[in-house]
Amino acid sequence: MYHTFADNPGVFGDKPVMIGEFASCEAGPYEQAWQTKAAWIGDAFTQLAGPDYPKIEAFYWFDIDKECDWRINSSPESLAAFQTAIRAVPPSRPTPA
Fold this sequence. Notes:
The chain is 35% helix and 16% strand. The protein is α+β, with helices and mostly antiparallel strands. Helix 3 (37-49) runs parallel beside helix 4 (76-87).
């Protein structure tokens, strides 16, 4: 969906993109060690910082405990992964006038 908007500025405009909600649950009993929420968080931030998503400038973490625990601090490992990832994000760029 991102590229539908970002790759068609003539139709949708050329504005920054915000992800309205995203999150991950802790791994269940059948996931592998590399399929943890902490690993997902690290990978998500790596992808967002990469060249494929240059217009994404904001996101909202779905920080609720329902169906599963979506919160950032659902485990010490997930919280540490989020803290490490968010520290690596460069400061916001000022919006041109």
